[in-house]
Design a protein that fits this description.
The protein has about 270 residues and is α+β, with helices and mostly antiparallel strands. Helix content is about 25%, strand content about 30%.
Length: about 270
């Protein structure tokens, strides 16, 4: 079986081959086309490892899936969410040039931003590895997005296409001992890892509601991909982030981990109401 779908991105139309035939899929992929396999559990070998995406039934195919297949094939970022003012998307290699001016890329907990000439503290206690250096950044883009399909994303202001921050979700392991986490039970479920959310907005764009807008959009995406509940770890003195969490219906949960330099951390949990 072979079937072709068409996807239009930026006024350019691209074909996507949908098939259960190994040779057809591999030939199309070799020709640079986006492909989607039809997987049959009785003959799983029919879809080789070189074909990264497959569905069990054609009914599972939709416009979002097809566009993401084409974007991944072309090396274009996935569009995670869009709000009235913002676009949440995957970071791209070209964003690296903007990151030193908008994100903390140094071991210190503070840095001076050119537009403010002052020291600014960021919400996250630990520097994300994605911003360690350019090599780490590019590696993150390649492996995190393609394997997990979630992570830390770019927050782009739509009107001027400007990178103004970052927001995303990732997995944090809960350890029984050590300084990372204290394993706890919430309700009837004993969790070994949790989905954590983090965000940051460039100082010159703060106090405009962009943080709330970005976090709310990412929470909706987390619900869609069933990465809930979602947790937020916030320094006790970070009042704006605490207010944001409470505004979006996060609730406090017990937490025993000290933050950086002994600062107390608070943990909040978001559980969607269906």
């Amino acid at each position: 079986m072979k079937k072709e779908y068409l996807v239009t991105i930026d006024e350019i139309t691209y074909p996507v081959l949908f098939s259960d035939e190994k040779e057809a899929l591999l030939a199309a992929k070799a020709a640079g086309r986006a492909v989607l396999g039809l997987w049959d559990e009785k003959i799983p070998q029919a879809i080789p490892a070189e074909i990264p995406y497959a569905v069990e039934e054609e009914i599972q195919i939709n416009e979002v899936l097809l566009e993401r297949l084409v974007r991944r094939n072309l090396g274009l970022p996935w569009m995670i969410a869009e709000t009235k003012r913002l676009r949440i998307r995957e970071f791209i290699p070209g964003d690296w040039e903007e990151i030193p001016a908008t994100f903390l890329c140094y071991p210190k907990a503070e840095r001076t931003f050119p537009e403010t000439k002052r020291e600014v503290k960021l919400p996250w206690e630990e520097k994300p590895e994605i911003f360690t250096n350019q090599s780490a950044f590019l590696s993150y883009l390649h492996y995190q997005y393609s394997f997990y399909e979630y992570g830390l994303w770019a927050v782009e202001e739509k009107m001027h296409h400007r990178l103004i921050g970052g927001c995303g979700i990732w997995d944090r392991e809960i350890q029984e001992n050590g300084n990372t986490e204290v394993k706890k039970k919430y309700g009837k479920h004993e969790e070994k890892s949790m989905t954590e959310i983090g965000y940051w907005i460039r100082p010159s764009f703060q106090k405009m509601g962009y943080g709330t807008e970005a976090v709310e959009a990412v929470l909706s995406y987390a619900v869609q991909i069933e990465k809930v509940p979602v947790y937020a770890t916030i320094r006790e003195e970070n009042i704006p982030s605490r207010k944001l969490a409470e505004k979006l219906k996060f609730t406090p949960v017990p937490h025993s981990r000290p933050g950086q330099n002994g600062a107390r951390q608070l943990r909040y949990r978001y559980v969607p109401y269906y």
